[in-house]
Every structure is written in C-alpha cells, then in structure tokens.
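JOB MANIFEST
job_type = single_chain_structure
chain_count = 1
residues = 233
[input]
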Amino acid sequence: MPSTVSCGCDSHASICDFRACPKVGRDKGKIRVSSEQDPPPTRIRGGEAVKTALIDAAAEMLGEIGPSHISVREIAERAGVNHGQVHHYFGGKRPLLEAAMKQLAHGHFEYARMLTGDSIFPPALSLSQDSNYWRAISHIAMDGDLDLARIEIDEGVSVPRLTLKKLRTKTAGEMDDLVVKARLAGVAALQLGWVAFEDYLLMAVDAHEEEDRETLLAEVKKSIENAIVQAFD
C-alpha cells in the first residue's frame, strides 16, 4: 500500500501517492505538503518595483560570488520575480549586472564622500563599513571582469579617481604624476587587502581575544594613516 498524504493537488484526488505527486516529495527524505489554504508565493508587481528588486538582488549577489557564476534564474529567485522579467526589463544578465554595479558604485561614492569631508582620503579602515561594495569589487576583479569594475570610473563615481584628483592638486609641481599614482595604488592596496583578509590576518597574528583585536585594529589604522603621511607629506 503506497504512502498517501493530502496535498491539495488539482491534478488528481486529494489523497495521492506523495512519491509521484508533482507538489510534494521533491526533497529527499521530506514530504512537502501544499493545500488550498497555503498562501501563494509573494510576487512583486509593477515595472519599477520589479526592476528595483532585480537590481538589489544582483547587487547583493555580486557581493557573494563572481559575475560569471551568477545566473539569471538565481537573480530572479532572489528578487522574487519570474526570470523572464530580467530579459523583459534589462535585455539579459549583463545589462542587469551593470545596473547593479552602478547602484553599488554610486552608493559607495556618496558614503565615502560623506566620511571624507574636506580630507583627501576616506578614514582608514572605513571601507569595511561598506562590505557589499568591496566584496563585489573583489569578486569582479578576481573574475577578471574589468569592464564591470570600471563602471564607477565611467560614471564619475570612483573614489580612487577622486582621491587622485585631490592628490594631483596637492602635489602639483612637487611629485611626478607616476609616483603619485604608484603611492596611491599602494595605499589603496593596504585598505582593500585589510578588509578582504582581516579575519585571516587576525588569526595569523594570533589575535584571539576581543581586547587584542580592538588594540590591533587601532594599530593597523595608525599604520595605514602613517603610510599615507609618509607617501604624500
């Protein structure tokens, strides 16, 4: 006698063999039951709401995996919409990823400018407060997708480019432009390297206790600030 379960399936009687039912039994070792009382899946309605949900989902996923590993279906599932909406509103995955990167870049730029104020550099270690952005940049760079990474430059919202502009004004006639670029790249590498490898580096230097971590972070911040001073003062 086959095991049976009431599943509310429209295709046959309400009592069915759950192993053959299209609505239940899809997960190994689990019986998934649907009924007429179950609410339908939430679906976002309205063109702008759908586009916003897709961009937000794509931006979130860029912070988790490289762009070449993201699928249209995964983005749509994360957004809670049908995958056909990606093609309808964006024409495909690439334009959607570009829109997501624009959103991340603009958000990071405004946040960094707020923190920087009248200074040339954003505060040391402040990049860690915008984790989705730096994770996205890291995954994109490791994927070798520099066209996606340079969107912030094309959009005029690149923090490194703004910093370079300020440094050129500060060092005009005193420092070769190539030296300015090289030293800026070195300082940026310190910032990006720390946020990407912070947990590993703390473990590597045996900073287990919370108070040790706090002291170490303060010293790392000082080190980066000193590197900036030595490079450009």
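[summary]
The CA atoms of residues 124 and 221 lie 6 Å apart.
Residues 1-38 form one domain.
exit_status = 0
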